[in-house]
Amino acid sequence: MGFKGLLRLEDVEVDGYSKIGNHGLIANNRTAALVSMNGTIDWACLPNFNSNPVFSSILDRNRGGYFSISPAEKEDVFVHQTYKEYTNILITEFIRNNKTILRLTDFLPTTEYPTISFPEIHRYVEALSEDIDISLRFKPILDAGKEKPHIDRRKFGYIYSTRESNIGIVSEFKLNNSDGTISGDLKLDKRSSNWVVALYGITHLDRITDYKSYERLEDTFEYWLKWSGQNTYRGTYQSDVIRSALTLKALFYEPTGLMVAAPTASLPECIGGERNWDYRFTWIRDTSYVIEALAMLGYKREATKFLYDIMEIISREKKVRTIYTINDYGDVDEFEADFEGHRGSRPVRFGNKASDQLQIDQFGSIINAIYALHEVGGIINSYLWDFVEETLENIGHTWKYPDSSIWEFRTEPRHYVYSKLMCWVAFTRAIDIGRDQGFSGPYRKWQEIADEIKNDIIEKGFDKKLNSFTQYYGSPGTDSALLRLPQLGFLPGNDSRVKGTIERIEKELMTPDYLFKRYLEDDGLDGRDNAFLLLSFWYVEDLILMRKLAKAKEVYDSLLDRSNHLALFAEEIDFENGDLIGNFPQAITHLGVIRAAKKLTDEVKEISRNGQTIKHYSL
Question: Which end of the chain is more exposed for a tag (fewer CB within 10 A), N or C?
């Protein structure tokens, strides 16, 4: 039997850390965990996404917690990871001499009932082709390491406990406490198997069969299979689209309906640099992307719920914020943890200061989200329309202010062109929504403000000598966020000013392999800014709008090749070595995968229906 996508076990780690891209994701409807190809769970927050990490050795190999299972003898061992088809159940296989010697099946129990919490990690351990010696290590960190836990040996396992938290491990394997680490050097006979379960918040341990791992596995399999089966996308890129959709679904916190941008914190955007941020929050600007992507795949009900769940919070707080906690337990206040950082990338930050910034584009983003729901036939009630009117009253003044941009610069606020553009979007989208829905509103006034914003952008944000829009008023530089100019309808894709802007971005910010810098501006942070992947998917959409479909397919296919072995993407790619970098997996990148695939497929179908052909192009 042959295996594809094999990696030598000794190559999984660099500098004592599993590379970011060498991970798979397991998740339920409350939290997620990263499982390295070497069998180590080195990131998991329990019981929720924004809880303190119980396993965090991806951020500190010495002080962070972990839960590892692997062959004791690692020489000449290769590893292969895959998902059970159409699920987030992960399988890791260790292979020697082209035979699977050890298989791990990892999952977090999942249910369709959002109020049921299963803060448990189930690991099924199988010896397939031969007897095998196994090494198991379990060392959780409770309460961010503030208090040394008490470790109790029980009949069926061990419990770590502090005054605030506890976590247990249960197995039929014989385990020992070795200086605070639960360990076992175990032997598993050929064709035998065993379960190991970690349970957060539990105070009593029972026999392993009481945790019904087989039943939980079956329920979880049925849950993901049923959900992915509702996907309506049909096309060449179906497997990539479904994997991206499953990844997005895995990032939702079902009790509130909000979604984290990524399940991780402080994975570096540059190894050794300080671009390390906590992404376990909901970003308001991502809302429209989420709604559009879900609706594109037939998940209109979930798109509607997502918007209204966010609107409920906005209504309660009487304001729009840049980011939101997924529940009432989280905190956005930023602080630095005493961790080494992934491969020495410090500081390690939890919380996010971006919540304090003025980012004017967020107002346009939320109106654009309502517009996206309107476009797919979602419910737009008077409650939403009242919010639209109130928001436009605010933007009518705020659009003239400098802000921190979509890129959340921690430097002096400026008049960023993209921020102004999204204010224009707010007014034009509101006019379209209101007239289509039959709502009354001051449409003439809104159109006047929209025209004023547009004229202001063209007058102050367009450089005639360069034939390009600039990053901010008075700036000589450009900004890859301006790739969205044609997508938002500000100007047609064939307008010379749009073409000039995109050509300049291609020349100054794009690499030969279609990766983009966000900007050239000094942002005051140490470490280089690497390739922001969403921009490449925006570029695909621009090529489609400019009718360069063969080029669009070429770029899109090259991007899919950039994913990891499981078709998962991080936020960025390292320009120098092509490694996935930054928080992982990243929702907004997977949104880009879905949007570009759907638009590319639809465009080709439309051309085929019209009896036209595309030279050197097929889907």
Answer: N
Q: Cis omega (within 30 of 0) on the bond before 71?
A: no
Q: Which residue has the tokens 């517009």?
A: 371
Question: H helices within 318-412, ranges in order?
Answer: 361-375, 382-398
Question: pLDDT: is 287 or 619 the higher one?
Answer: 287
- DSSP summary character for residue 578: -
Q: Tell me the C-alpha distance between 461 and 473, whole Å.
A: 5
Same-domain pairing of 38 and 164: yes
Do 220 and 257 belong to one domain?
A: no
- Residue 197 shares a structural domain with residue 319: no
Q: Where does 1-91 have alpha helices with state H? A: none
What pLDDT, in 10s, does the model give residues 202-219? 999 999 999 999 999 999
**Beta strands 99-107 and 90-96, pairing class:** antiparallel
Which two tokens mark 45? 């927050």
> What contacts 24+ positions apart, CB below 8 Å, involve 314-321?
314/366, 314/387, 315/383, 315/387, 320/284, 320/362, 320/363, 320/366, 320/391, 321/284, 321/355, 321/362
Identify the helix (H) or strand (E) that includes residue 450: helix 443-461
- Give how far Cα 416 sits from Cα of 245, 284, 406, 409, 447, Å: 32, 18, 9, 11, 21
300-317 and 287-296 helices, crossing angle to 10° = 160
| H-only helix segments in 487-532 | 496-509
| Domain interval for residue 502 | 230-609
**Given a cut of 60, is residue 168 above it in pLDDT?**
yes
Q: Note the pLDDT tens digit of each residue in 6-24.
A: 999 999 999 999 999 999 9
